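Final report, closing paragraph on structural work. Over the funding period we assembled a curated collection of sequence-structure pairs, and we close with a single example.
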Amino acid sequence: MIPPRLVPLLEQFDFAHERLANRLAGPVMDSGDGTDTEVGPMTDREYCWEPTPDCWSVRRRTDGPGPRATLLAGAGEWGRDGAAYPHPWPPPFTTIAWRLSHLTEMLALRADHTAGSHVLTRDDHPVEADARGAMAAFGAGATAWRRALSNVDDTALDTVGYCTYPHGSDAEEPFIDIVWWVNQELLHHGAEIALLRDLYRVSHH
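Its predicted structure, as stored:
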């Protein structure tokens, strides 16, 4: 039995996940009024497009961090621009690649720290070099998080530190607040990515 107060959060997550996945891959997306609008899949050039100078993005590890970044987070040949606290101010503008990598990492790691090994860190999470890989990784991360929520009961929802994710406030929050937080991350980063897709389309035609 899914706790009744979890049901609307799951429905919201499913809606946001499906909408962003369709916005990235097509062939159609929800236009916002319930009708389908054609959209092509994201390309590699769009994935790494830097609409402003000094963007943070994903980069080959051998090339080193980008402007004002001090590290490349993640595992593999590519990493995501980052810096230790305090972060640069004003915040760097980030590419679709950066935002999607951040979102995917959060979903995959929180899934692991809820219903998995409870040991994965950012250093274990692969950073995808291309659009196809990034979209597949996002889908896998969303699926893992949704599966992690499938057996959560009321006791778990009220448990502070139920999720042991080490890069957030999970140790200080009841789990239902973390579920809400993940939803708002998906909603707001999804909206940012959608806007960047629109800007890329109009600026490259």
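The radius of gyration is 17 Å. The chain has a mean pLDDT of 95. We thank the funder for supporting this effort.
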